[in-house]
Amino acid sequence: MVTNLISPYSNNPVVNQFVITGNSRITFQSYKTLICQIKQNHRPTLAPNSWDISTTTSKYLYAFLRQNGYYVRNKKDLKKMIKDKRFRIAEIKNA
Predict the structure, then answer these.
(1) Helical H segments across the chain, by residue range
(2) Which residues neighbour 52 within 8 Å (Cβ) at sequence distance 6 or greater?
(3) Taking Cα atoms as reference points, which of 1, 39, 42 lies closest to residue 18?
(4) Each residue's pLDDT tens digit in the chain (95 positions)?
């Protein structure tokens, strides 16, 4: 199922920011690019060339992660989680 990400700032759906659920995983997509995927019982996966592509994408990535139980405020938090191996960088397969 594909839905628009709900903005934590306005509680409205965000245009061009999507949450795809199914097959025991949830994926965040910005425009046509897969950014992050959380598979059941696995660490979140960030796409290597996409997770830090723009300020807007990053803002909604952090919102997506917070909505799914990962407290990320900013790039510094996310980089620490990557370094601590709580997140991994790898290609994301089709949602």
Answers:
(1) 55-67, 75-83
(2) 58, 75
(3) 1
(4) 999 999 999 999 999 999 999 989 999 999 999 999 999 889 999 999 888 889 999 999 999 999 999 999 999 999 999 999 999 999 998 75
CA distance 34 to 29: 4
**Residue type at 21 in one-letter notation:** T
Helices 55-67 and 75-83: crossing angle in degrees, nearest 10, is 60
What phi-psi label fits residue 76: left (phi over 0), alpha (psi between -120 and 50 degrees) or beta? alpha
Q: Exposed, middle or buried: residue 83 (CB in 10 Å: 0-12, 13-18, 19+)?
A: exposed
Helix (H/G/I), strand (E/B), else coil: 62: helix
Provide the 8-state DSSP code for 12.
S
Domain spans, the chain: 2-89
